[in-house]
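A reminder from the course coordinator: this example appears on the midterm review sheet, so study it carefully.

Given structure:
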């Protein structure tokens, strides 16, 4: 049986298109940080109490029409649309919060915080990086890039609609709130991972 050269050529072209749509740009470096550190670092007394910031939850999900044709439109507009967030002020929030421990699953980062009475709160990233579930040598690869891009299939603000539904049917639930975590030195050793 002779190989079908047209089918082989088509498959090779399709592979090149997939590679081109996923490989163009700096897509292999992953970070959950949306805002780079300021040129002038904040101090321990910086007051964020009345501050807000307008930022998109995930500008990196904005892709070309060719990419979205092959990988899906998903909720990319929700991820890339700038939204106003309240800036978290660790010095006054809940009477003052102190970071105690970083955690998270294989894709979400979280930071545990305690108030003066020992009550615990958790900051959890809106954006995900499921590529961290891959072996380390694959975490900055094309495969990791495509896996992370699949996060755009989830709505970044979905957690906000769940509490009213849970309350309506009598299910115990949390009351999540969206906040922006600034490059606050009060984050201590967690500043690099959570600031911005």
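Designed residues:
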């Amino acid at each position: 049986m002779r190989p079908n050269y047209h089918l082989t050529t088509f498959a090779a072209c399709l592979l090149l298109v997939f590679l081109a749509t996923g490989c163009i740009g700096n897509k292999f470096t992953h970070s959950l940080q949306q805002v780079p550190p300021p040129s002038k670092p904040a101090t321990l007394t910086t007051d964020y109490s009345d501050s807000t910031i307008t930022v998109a939850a995930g500008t990196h999900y904005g892709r070309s029409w060719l990419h979205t044709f092959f990988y899906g439109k998903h909720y990319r507009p929700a991820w890339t649309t700038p939204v106003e967030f309240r800036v978290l002020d660790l010095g006054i929030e809940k009477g003052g919060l102190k970071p105690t421990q970083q955690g998270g699953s294989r894709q979400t980062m979280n930071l545990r915080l305690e108030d003066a009475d020992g009550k615990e709160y958790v900051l959890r990233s809106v954006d995900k990086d499921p590529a961290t579930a891959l072996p380390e040598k694959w975490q900055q690869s094309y495969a990791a890039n495509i896996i992370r891009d699949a996060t755009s299939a989830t709505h970044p603000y979905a957690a906000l609609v769940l509490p009213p539904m849970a309350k309506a049917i009598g299910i115990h639930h949390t009351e999540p709130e969206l906040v922006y975590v600034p490059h606050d030195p009060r984050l201590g050793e967690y500043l690099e991972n959570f600031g911005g």
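Residues 130 and 162 are 23 Å apart (CA to CA). Residues 5-194 form one domain.
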